[in-house]
Design brief:
By secondary structure, the protein is an alpha/beta fold. It has helices spanning 39-44, 46-52, 87-99, 118-126, 192-207, 254-267, 283-287, 301-305, 310-324, 343-347, 358-361, 368-384, 413-417, 461-465, 471-484, and strands spanning 2-4, 19-23, 56-59, 63-64, 76-80, 103-108, 138-139, 162-166, 172-177, 212-215, 273-276, 297-298, 332-334, 388-392, 492-495, 502-506, 511-516, 522-523, 529-533, 541-542, 546-551. Among the domains are: 118-177, Oligo-1,6-glucosidase, Domain 2 (Oligo-1,6-glucosidase, domain 2), CATH 3.90.400; 493-551, Sandwich (Immunoglobulin-like), CATH 2.60.40. Bound molecules: alpha-D-glucopyranose (GLC).
């Protein structure tokens, strides 16, 4: 079977096969020594990213924020948070990134704002029925005295999706909707001012040369006007799409918003792009976000969620191509991000225990050596597929999830909101180890905002740089070959017959990628040249949990 995602990228349309590096800025590099990563640290490390060989960076929200949800609670979209830097530093960063040949993607958060945002403060101050409240979703409570929330919707971090306000005279007032933390009130996207404001924010950053946006909770903006109750499993509620009928996920109305945004991006020079964070389970529904007049790419969470098994991985790949091929949108591949357990720690759980959150997996013992071996293979699978690839900072070092952070340092609202049953996402957000023998491992500052494990001394950039067989050097080699090997440039792939437990596919020019998920070594075609392998190929056989890129003669 041959898959084609689109015509090969010519000079423009860089996003069709870009390798994009995700920067969780608070944990990347600390330039001013306060223990929190910042724009200064990022600027100083630009040469590292250039040498790694990625095409673009996506930066998690750097806007002014009280940090109730790691910056996804934005108080002012036009200002960089003072803890992270200044507007001048931001502009200098964008210019320098471009000089290094890197594009810059910011993170836009349109579903909600911070409860400290000027609009929400005005809404609280102005009271029920005021125009200020119309920009949010305020409702009277149900039951006697309005004591019960307006509906039974649940928040993503646990608990009800509604919080009651207190009126200026001290009496209990209306409730407001927040699909995430109470500090993140949802905006009312039926309000023209909300639409106009976000279009203006996009222009503000596009005018500064930013190359695109990752759209947070892209599926969630539009709500059913009646806010009706619905029956759904708590864990599933943000992932469910019922043909546009879910009251707050993947409603058909979101597409108008993205058509308007696309028109704005298209006014600018140089291929400005959008990448949707849309948790939509049906690939055909997800493809609707990528119609030619809408967004450019969307994260492929089916691939991220697939267990380390040949069949499951192949199904995720096939489903993605099947949905995207007909509309000419490129596939994207992602293994980790700032919201999920790092993939070394997912793939290192024997029995293929999966689950995105630490709360779901932490009772299953983890084998980090196995996880690392599989992560090396997964890197060659991911970077060997046509389409664009997203790398999460630290995966190129083989970082694992820090599962034993002491409760007192946890900041993810999931910890509190789950009643201390799920530690949340801080374990994948621990500051990067750059150099040296002990924490803070060259991150900067005396004490990083989350403590790094002592064992990361073997995973620093400095340490791995010096070892030809390190994860870092595997990623560097893979990214270099991906750029220079004409066989990997096209948008096509074709599966090659392989025994159970093995996936093999060919790209152009006789380049073949083989991944062995089984335990038994797999014989490779005779005379093939090994371009790159995740584990040593001995006697022409690819060991288990390993991958190789070959050139066939
Ligand atoms: C997205 C972000 C996540 C954030 C949530 C609310 O899922 O990736 O980090 O908590 O949106 O903004």
């Amino acid at each position: 079977m041959t898959h084609s995602t689109a015509s090969p990228a010519t000079g423009g349309e860089w996003w069709r096969n870009a390798a994009v590096y995700q920067i969780y800025i608070r944990s990347f590099a600390d330039g001013n020594g306060d223990g929190v990563g910042d724009v200064a640290g990022l600027r100083a490390r630009l040469p590292y990213l250039r040498d790694l060989g990625v095409d673009a960076v996506w930066i998690n929200p750097w806007y002014e924020s009280p940090m109730a949800d790691g910056g996804y609670d934005v108080a002012d979209f036009r200002r960089i948070d003072p803890v992270l830097g200044t507007g001048e530093e931001g502009a200098a960063f964008v210019a320098e990134a471009h000089e290094h040949g890197l594009r810059v993607i910011l993170d836009i958060v349109p579903n909600h704002v911070s409860d400290r945002h000027a609009w929400f403060r005005a809404a609280l101050a102005s009271g029920p029925g005021s125009p200020e409240r119309e920009r949010f979703l305020f409702r009277d409570g149900r039951g006697p005295g309005g004591d019960e929330p307006p509906n039974g919707w649940r928040a993503a971090f646990g608990g009800p999706a509604w919080t009651r306000t207190t009126d200026p005279d001290g009496t209990p007032g209306q409730w407001y909707l927040h699909l995430f933390a109470p500090e993140q009130p949802d905006l009312n996207w039926d309000h023209p001012q909300v639409r106009a404001e976000f279009e203006s924010i996009l222009r503000f950053w596009f005018d500064q040369g930013v190359d695109g946006f990752r759209i947070d909770v892209a599926h969630g903006l539009v709500k059913h006007p009646d806010l009706p109750d619905f029956a759904v499993h708590e864990h599933d509620q943000h992932l469910t799409a019922d043909g546009g009928e879910h009251p707050h996920a993947d409603r058909d109305g979101v597409h108008d918003i993205y058509r308007a945004w696309r028109a704005i991006a298209d006014e600018y020079e140089g291929d400005r792009v959008f990448a949707a964070e849309a948790w939509v389970s049906d690939p055909a529904r997800l493809a609707r976000y990528l119609r030619p007049d809408e967004l450019h790419t969307a994260f492929n969470f089916h691939y991220l969620e697939a267990p380390w098994r040949a069949k499951a991985m192949r199904a995720a790949i096939d489903d993605s191509f099947a949905a995207l091929g007909p509309i000419g949108a490129p596939a994207t591949w992602v293994l980790s991000n700032h919201d999920v357990v790092r993939h070394v720690s997912r793939f290192g759980r024997p029995g293929h225990a999966q689950g995105k959150s630490l709360g779901m997996v932490r009772d299953t013992p983890v084998d980090l050596e196995l996880g690392t071996r599989r992560a090396r293979a997964a890197a060659l699978l991911t970077l060997g597929l046509p389409g664009s690839a997203y790398l999460y900072q630290g995966e190129e070092l083989g970082l694992w999830e820090v599962e034993d952070l002491p409760p007192e340092v946890l900041q993810d609202p999931t910890w509190e909101r789950s009643g201390h049953t799920d530690p949340g996402r801080d374990g994948c957000r621990v500051p990067l180890p750059w150099s040296g023998q002990e924490p803070p491992f060259g991150f900067g500052g005396a004490r990083p905002w989350l403590p790094q494990p002592a064992a990361w001394r073997d995973l620093t950039v400095e340490h791995e740089d010096a070892r030809p067989d390190s994860m870092l050097n595997l990623y560097r080699a893979a990214l270099r070959i991906r750029r220079t090997e004409p066989g990997l440039a096209g948008a096509e792939m074709a599966w090659v017959d392989a025994p159970e437990g093995v996936l093999a596919f060919e790209r152009g020019d006789g380049v073949r990628c083989v991944v062995n998920f089984a335990d038994e070594p797999h014989p490779l075609p005779e005379g093939a040249e090994v371009l790159l392998s995740s584990a040593p190929v001995e006697g022409g056989r690819l060991p288990g949990d390993a991958a190789v890129w070959l050139r066939l003669r």
